[in-house]
User: Fold these one by one.
Assistant:
Number 1:
Amino acid sequence: MPTSATVLGGSKGCARPMVWKDARRRFYWSLRAKVAWSSAMEQLAEASPGSTAEYRSRLLESLAEVDASTDRRVAAEKLEALDLCATAAQLKADHLMRRMLALAQEDRKATMNGLIRLVDNLSDDEKSALAGALASSSRSPGMSVTHAITEKGRD
């Protein structure tokens, strides 16, 4: 009986030579990596519904520091340990900002009325942070208002 064989998979480029005694272990880690990848991609898609799957894939590869050549066990462990809370919050804020800008272009008066009602529901600290962020001329053009408010809250 041969001690090694090529195990073929359904995806392009996933056929690799392996020892039969390691086949179950490799399948286990490949499956765990795939489940962790799918879960993370779902979180990113939920946070940024307008983004493409390609963008989310590149973002996840960058955040987890994994790619197609990464050992499946290493990839699974990195993906499972990855905390996407901050990234998801930023993606949601960016998505909301883009939607608000699009709505503002459609109907400025309705947008202003909505913002005034929104401000009425903020706490005094949040109102102060928002006022500071709006008045701040030191804020860089690429810095989100959410980031500016968060930074103001840390002071």
Note: The chain has a mean pLDDT of 81.
Number 2:
Amino acid sequence: MYASGPFVMNTRAEIEQAYRDFHSGKFGSIPRALRHVIHERGAVSGIRQPG
């Protein structure tokens, strides 16, 4: 099992492919108008603020 960042896969090659897919936009994108809202809530860093 390999883990890196938000990805957990069976092989290092799968991790590398996941990063390529992520950076190419294969997982979708966040509309520019919503990016500041998501960042303020901590979702970008993976940390959710209380309340």
Note: Residues 43-51 have pLDDT under 50 and may be disordered.
Number 3:
Amino acid sequence: MIARLRVFEHEIEAALAEELESDERFSGDSALLAALVVAAYRIVVVATVRRRLAGDDLADITTDHQRRLNQAFDVIEHGISAVSGLPVRPRHRRPPRT
């Protein structure tokens, strides 16, 4: 079943990238955006399923699922730094002098 889900994930990502590529309104990297969308959705769904299997309250799960999806898509749409206030690129430290 897990193998089939991975194939499904790849198929959805490829289909989304293809749709974006054919959309005249979209001018970005279709493969990158498709991968980000699918990864964001997968992360939220896996956490939701784990909570449901653990017996958490369905109303709480539903509310949190929607909140996390909105947050994920806000990050994709507006960028990490715009949503979180954190820098997108980590600062690199210089190696210590010897």
Note: Residues 17 and 30 are 5 Å apart (CA to CA).
